[in-house]
Each structure stands twice: as C-alpha cells, then as structure tokens.
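Exercise 7. Given the components listed, write out the predicted structure of the assembled complex. Treat all entries as one system.
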Amino acid sequence: MRPFEYYSPRTLSEACNLLAEGEPDSKILAGGTDVLVEMRKSSAWSSKAIVDITRIPSLRGIGESGDWIIIKPLTTHTEVLHSDLVRTHAPLLQTAVSTIGSPQIRNRGTVGGNIMNAAACADTVPPLIALDAEIMLKSTSGERVIALSEFFVKPYVTVARRDEILVEVRFPKLPANARSSFVKLGRRNALSIARLSVAAVVCKDEAGVVTDARIVPGAAFPRWQRVPEAEKLLIGQKPSKELLVEGGKKVSEVMISFTGRRWSTEYKEPVIAVLVRRALEACE
Amino acid sequence: MVGKHKIIGKPERRVDAWGKVTGKAKYAEDYTVGHQLWGKVLRSKYPHAKILSIDTSKASELLGVEAVLTAREIPGSNVFGIVVKNQQILADERVRFLGDGVALVAAKSKEIADHALALIDVQYELLPVVSDPEEALRPGAPLIHGDTNEFVHHKVRKGDVAKGFAEADFTIERKFKTQFVEHAYIEPEAVLAEPAEQGGVKITGSVQNLFSSRRSVAEALGISLNRVQIIQSTLGGSFGGKDEVMTSMCCRAALLAGRTGKPVKMVNTREESMLESYKRHPYVLYYKWGAKKDGTITAMEIRVVADGGAYASMSPFVTWRSVVQATGPYYCENVKTDVYAAYTNNNYTGAMRGFGSPQVDFAIESMMDELAEAVGVTPLEIRMKNGFEGGAVTATGQKLAHTVSLKEVLSKAAQELGFEEKWRRYRDAKAVAKRRGVGLACSYRGVSLGAEGVDAAQTTVSVQTDGSVIVSSGVTDMGQGAQTQMAQITAEVLGISVDRIQFLNTNTSGVADSGPTVASRGTVMGGLAAKNAAEKVRATLLEVGSELTGTPVDALDLADNYLVNERTNERLASFGELTAACFNKGRPMIGLGWHKAPRTSWHEEEGKGDAYFTFVYGANAAEVEVDTETGRVNVIDFVSVHDVGKAINRAMVTGQMCGGVAMGLGYGLLEEFEIEAGIPKQLNFDEYLIPTSMDVPRIKTVIVENEDPAGPFGAKSVGEPTNELAAPAIVNAIYNATGKRVYEIPANLERVFLGHKLTRHDKRGSEQKNAFDAVMVESCKVRGGSE
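Answer.
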C-alpha cells in the first residue's frame, strides 16, 4: 500500500473545501467496501489522499418530504433494508440491497458509495433509476441536481467532478397502484456480484390496464437506462403471459443494439429476456 | 479393550479448540521477534522468459534494505523437489511461470521491502508460452524442461481391451475436462526464520510437511539436517497446499536470515499466494467403455492428460493414484489405462485434498450414469451390478482382503435421500423452468501413501510425575484434527481423560522424520504410532503398579485416571501417584512409538500391483434444483456416507464429511482458477468463487464402521474420500433434472445453460507483453459485472 494523506472533515463545507483546495488526486471514503479493497492494489491505485466523510452526521439517514423519499449518502445498505419508509414506498430497493454482498458488507457499504463507485454491477442503481431517482451533488461552487439516469457515462465513470460530493439521493414515492420487483442472477447465494439483474415497476388502473411501466436492466447495457421500447409494449395493455415474454425479448434486442454481438451475448441474450419476464411477472 | 472404549468413538472436544476460538492460537504471522526484518520476493514478469540480467544495485542502496539476493548468492543447492528436483528457490537463467521468484529483499519494513522490489531491474527475453497440456505434448511445442514436456506416463494393464471391446454390445466414448482449483486455505503462507546458534536456523511457520521442507533448507544453506529446526505453528488450513510453496518460502527466509544474521519474516498477501502457489491438476480425460446389454462392462480404455504446470512437484504421485483408481470400484476384466503429465507455463500442480481422485471420479461416475441410461436401469442398479464385493480383484490385480463395503455405503446413501423414487419422478417430471434432480456417486480409495514410497511415522508419549502427559508426533495437525485423534488414542490406552494431554506442535528436532502428513494417513499412521507408544508406557505403568500393590499385572487396568483392580474395580492408585512411583523407581517415563505400514507393491512397466494396504469406501447422493432458464444450480439436499473403519472422534469425522462436501460442491459448481496464456485471471476471492455457507445445503452424514485391522482401533481414512464425490453426484443430479450432461466442470451458469464455457476472446500469442499488462490491469480494476 502506498503512503497517502488522510483527512477527516467534520462538516460538509469543510469536506467541500478539502476537495476544492486540497490534494487534487483524492478519493472520498464512505463505507470503504470498494476503496479499501482497491487501495491494496498498488497498480490500480493512484490517489494520494483520502477524504473520510463518515464523521459528517448530516450525510446520514432516510426521510420523507411530501411525496419524496430522501436517502442521505452515508446510509448503509442494512439501514435501507430495515427502513419502514423504503419498505412502504420503494420495496424493490429493499429487495436489491438484501442481495448485496454479506451482512458485513451491508453493514459498511453505503448507498452513496454504491452510486459513486459506479460499478456496472451496483445493485442499488437499477431500482433507483426505476424509481426515477435524482441525486444532489455539492461543491464549493454550489449544488446541482441530476437525474440518476443521466449521471453515468460508463462503468466506473460518472459526470461528477472530482470536487463534488454526493449529498442526497431522492425519489418520488411509488403510487399506490404500483407493483415493483428486483430480480438478480448471481453465481452463488451470498457475496455474489450481479451477472445480470432487472428492476421493474408496473402501475395499472382498476381495469388492470398498464398505465406506467419502467424496466431497468443491470450489468447488461453499457450504461444504466430504462428501456422505453419494451415499456411501450406494456402500456395500455392488460399483460398476458405472451406479452411479458415479448417484453423480455424486446429488452434483449435493445441490449444487442447497444452492445453488438460479443463473446458473452450467447448467454446474455436469452437470459436477460428471461429475467425481464420474471421481473414483470413479479409485478403481476 | 475392543468393545468397551471410553474415549475412542466419543465426540471429544478438540485439543486445539480453545486456542482457536479465543484467538490465543499462534499462527505463523503472530510470531514476531526483536530486530526482525521483512522478506519479500520479486516474482517473474512473464510466464516464460530467459533472464538476461538482474541489476539489484539501486535496491541495495535503499535505506533500510539489509539484503538483496539472487540465485547466484545461494550458498548451497538452489534446486528442490520431492520426486524430480527441478524447482528453484530463485530462478537463475529462466522463468517458467508467473509465480517464479527472481530476487529476494530483506528490509526493516514491509513497505521498504516493497519499494526495493520495484527498484530491481530484470531484463528478460520472452520465450514462447505453452498453456495447454495437450498442446505441450505435441511435437514442436515450447519445451519447459529438457527435451520433452511429457514427464509422467503411468499405466495399468489388465486382460485384453481389444478382446473386451469385441465382446461388447455397445461402447460409450466420452471426453471430460476438469479445472485448476485453488486450495483456498484461510491463512496465506507465512514463516519466521531466526539464525540459531552454531550456524543453524530455526524456522517457525505454516508448514504442512516439515521434514521435506527441512531437507531443502539444509541443502540450500549447505548445512546438516540437525542444524535446521522447523517448528510448526498452528496452521490456518492447508488441504495439501503447504508443501513445496512453503519449502520455497522456508528456504528464502532462511537464506535472508543467514545473509543478514537477523530474524526474517515472510508473509504472502492473498494475491501473492494465489499467484505463486500450486493448484489441483486440470485433467483431460478420454474414457471408452465397452459393455453388454445387461450392463456388464467388458472393457475400459482410459487416457488422461494432466497439466503439471511448470514443475514436477507431486504430479508423479498424484497421477499414480489416478491410474490406480481410474476404473472406479467396478469389475472389468480388460483394462488399459494411460495417465500422462505434461509441463506447461502454468502454475505448477501438486497435492490437494483428493490427490488425483476427484478428476477421475468425475469421469467414472458420469460414465456409470451414461451406462445405466444405455442399459435402461437406474444409477443405483448399475452400480450394484458392477460394484466390488469382498475378495474382488482390482484393475491393478490386487485382491481386496478387507471388508468391501461399497454396496453398503451405496444403499445407505440412496436410502437416506429416497434416491430411487425421486430419480424416477424427476426424470419423468414436466419440463418446467426450475427442475429438481438427484445424483449418486461412489468410490473406493487407497489408504495412505501406498506404493508411492516409504510409509512410517513416529509418535512419542511422555508421562509426567503429576499424571499429566505430553504427546508429540511427526504427523502434523493442519486443522484436520490429527492431534486430537492421537490424544484420544493415547488417552484410551492409558485410561486417562483427554484433558491430561498436552500435544506439542511438530518440531523436526524433537521427533523422527515421519514422512509427509498427506494421503489421509494421519489417523492410521500417527494413530498407530501413538497407540504403540502409549502401549509401551502402559506396560511400564502396570508393572510398577503391580510392584506397588502386589496385584498381578494381568489383574490390573488403567481406567478413569486410576490404576484399578480389573476384577474388583477397586481403585488402587491415582494415575498421578502411579507416574510418580514410576519416576521414583527410575523406570522409563516415555514411550517411543513407531509404525511402519504393511507392504505394498507396484510394477511400473507391467502396470500392476498391490497398490495400497487397504481401501475405504464412500457414497454421496445429491439433490439439486436447476433453473433451466439461467443455468443456475442450487444444491438443496445432500447425503454423505463413508466407511471410516472406526470413528475415533465422531464429531471430527462428521466435520470432515461436511467440509469435504462443501469443498467438492465448489469443485463441481463454482471454482475455477483460470489461466490464459500462462496468466492467471483470478488472484483473490472477489473473483475466485468458493461456496459460502449460504450455498451449502443441509448435509446428512452417515458414518459406517467396518473395523480394519490395518488401523488403530480399526480406524482408516476420512479426510480425502469426503472430497471426491460431491462434484460427480451433483453433475449426475443436473442430468437427472435437465436431461443434459455437463462434461466440463465447474458446472457454472454458462456450462449448464449453453453446454459449454464462455471464453473472452483476448488477444494472445505474439502480443504477450501487452496481453499480460492488459490482464493485470483488468483483474485489478474490473470486478465482475461489466461482462
């Protein structure tokens, strides 16, 4: 491990100042479940300073404001897992965090870290995009709010500047007529990185006709996004078994239109279709 | 004494339990002494290259660096190897795999040592890489050692296979492949080497086979064996894995300690451990069986190619066990088996729990299910038809003289799982997405080293004047419980409770060379030596007791920590009073126990022999659920049945059975140490996946006890047989569920769903350097998910 500077700011403005004026090549430490692992690998680790934001109390907690749920970035996955607000208003996010790592990792890892690390397999991201989440970034030059779906460029790369701190994740509560789901395929039953995943939200009117559908695959597209081509198939319809199969196939087609045929397509093409179908079935 | 055991067979608490659960056990890294330096290894940059020059000048000048060594500075022998001496402590002219060491640094801190490594300038000339064992055997392949890469060819010949195939109604011909597997011991390699008086060295470390490591250290330093003392620290797992890689580390640390005159500690990171350490052999197996319509097997022709990697290591012995056991416990009059091992530029492959059996068992047990299907009977029926019974003659011509319990373990495994009924029901079930299946696998396994080599061991029992006892043995404990077993055997013979016994970790200067603790020989060999030692002490104590009490020796017994009159059950003296009297009378307080295994034989040219002095039998039954739309397999129920002869400690036998199944489950479904063009792709457990507790199902264990006179109190082996059957049982269960057979393990998502492995098409070959850099960067940066 290379030597590095370590800062432990106690307020948000102190942290912003450090990032703006301190060592330019610094890394923010939240739960540490990614940072601490990467620090050991000298070949991949170039940061010269760590800014540990874990002692800034204002960055913790889950709350609500009108029709919105607000999750502060240092909230751990375990806290999300036990939150009544999330259970009531965003159950798919709860399902997703329950599949992250192990109890130890869920106790340390944070929602903010999961987003900012931007791994293609980040389990909170597909449900948050399906929830139409926004995030707020803060720096000495001010605050800005970005739709989460616009935040990612590609795996491990986001539009956040190096002096910005994620200070809030928020999303509208799911309407009462919404059903949601998160389906994940991993190689084992715990400590399992998503091979593929799907987050889905489906709203229906009293007649059972779909009024809103949101489908977000994980670890499948070059960047996370909803799949409007598939969502459109559902809207205005009463879902039949065949329709859900078709929805899955559509997502698979769209995936290939983005990625082209690659070494893993042989597997991903049929399987992502299955997972989408299952996610939609779970919303029935 | 048989029939009224007080301690044998009981779930006694392990002698090492308290230390381990309270954190007081001292593992190698916990040993720290004053003035200690940190040793680090500069490893190769390429899987195959000529070393043109090594410039250590900058590293030597760095403040805090106390020594930089290359192969040239080794005073004694730079080569080691138990069978073939072709492994180097430090590469001199050539590197043959990425884990080869090129130079050593000793410095005042780990960080300085790491920094110094970066300052060593090594110039290489790249050589062509061969990473596939079958390619390595073809003419024109890059040569790793000498003028051929084929360094093992074992054979077994019985009858006439041409005649056998002519008699067959049909043949089944299949190809199977198995993978590299990492031992995944929790504690990575670590040692502390201290210069000792009179020019010797004392090494404390995580070493499995202390005597072979000691031999290499003595040769490297150019000193006699009695000046090298290796003391085993408490081991955090080994599974066969802490042999050559630890020999190498012991030698390196000893060389640095010798050069600097200071203690030197070396500890591998997990990445260094996975990069350097040897693995389980990948095998390519070609099986051809001829059979009659009634299921009789008329011929077996088997060809196996093992990837030996860069060095011979244990390959000659591992593959020998494979050739002996390659036909499984089944009657067949005509057998022709050839097992080859080839050098490649991959990690070298050596001992790992199972030792050449898991690979062949996967092939044999898959073949057996295919035979059942071809004949139209159940997997249980085909095994009951062909399986060995008492007095059977094996493929190597050995007549089995012990209790052959194959059919007993098979029927118990099938019965516990409800195999026959489930197998039929699942086979005929509707084709839904998630399907259940059951699978069966069985084996016979030779106990201990067999005709591999000299097989003898020492255990010493020393009684103290207060009635406490010290036991030490050349057989080592690496977590498997050898100390507890030997303590129980000693306690049983001496009629004392186990808590009176203090077991010493093995010290090469304290006990005689007892060979390696491998081949599931700990209980049989160490245990019989312990029994022998304790019986000597017991005889002395009873004589003294007779003198003390005037009771004849044959009326005396030792029981419950007392000398008792066997007829009246009267307690005549406490065990402590008896040992004190023994001391006061000047009688020997120590028993030196020795056991040499019965004779075995092998004719390499004829491919025949009495390979092992006895065998054990086991059967596993697995129930799985396969998600046929994703290829995901969950093992939901499992039965493990083993005939262990006699369970010395039922809790530990059960532990071995469950651990073996968990490890075998990883082998069958998850684990794969992938090497591409000589470059390993996974160097830590984020990418190298072993089963978690969430992946291991309920395991029902059944201990079968047919006592065998070859072992202490009838006990035989349990460590390795438990590990060799889970993979084929699971693969057979997948077939029962899906109707599709997996011929390459692990049966991961892609292999189960597509029927083959997905391979990333990286550039390779001429752009070796770029490929290397790319893979290293990738394995550091990208973890899962993105592709």
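Discussion: The CA atoms of residues 19 and 25 of chain B lie 4 Å apart. The interface with chain A takes residues 111, 114, 269, 271, 629-632, 634, 670, 686, 689, 691-695, 748-750, 753-754, 758-761, 776-777, 780-787 of chain B (CB under 8 Å).
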